[in-house]
Design brief:
Layout (H helix, E strand, L loop, with lengths): L1 H23 L24 H7 L3 E4 L4 E4 L1 H10 L5 E5 L3 E6 L10 E6 L2 E6 L1 H8 L5 H7 L3 H13 L1 H7 L5 E7 L7 E8 L1
Antiparallel strand pairs: 1-2, 3-4, 4-5, 5-6, 6-7, 7-8
Amino acid sequence: MKLKKILIRSAVGLTLSTVLAPFTTIFANEEISTSKSINSRSETTQVDIQDEMVSNGYLVRDESNQTITLTEKYKQAVLSQVDRNKYAVQFTDNAVIITPKYQSRSSGGVNKIVHTWKGFDIYLSSSSVNAITTGAGITSLLNTMLPEPIITKGVAAALTASSLLLSHNNKGNGVIVAVAKIPTVPFGYTVHWVTSQ
């Protein structure tokens, strides 16, 4: 039964990646431009993850240094969602790191999100990748790292659609998923690359 679920999710992810591939390819140093005005709205409204988090007081964007930093509000939101008897939480200027206090040997890697100027990087432990590929909910994990519920659901859907790539790159230590901000793709963000931790 689990194999059937994995095959179905992989087929859906492969189909989506094949259909969206021409629209979602970006190279490392490629400049991205858009002809749309920022204020114009189409029938399908896009939610810019970082803009939403900046406007809600979770992130601070420094245009001159091109950096993103976490606010105290973001840190308190994360701490209120995490069971600190089971998990240790660490913060850097632009990252949230959540690690189990007691981790089995079979579960390598960490759960972490790093906000960057071009998007964000999501680090998923081996256990989290296995949960995604077997269809278990990843939303609760993302709720702890991303305080905005609508953003969490969008990222969870993208990760579920990419479950084949995640499973392939999971070498027992988890994966790193780079999500790039590209205004011209359907959802405004795309999985840029996936690699093992």
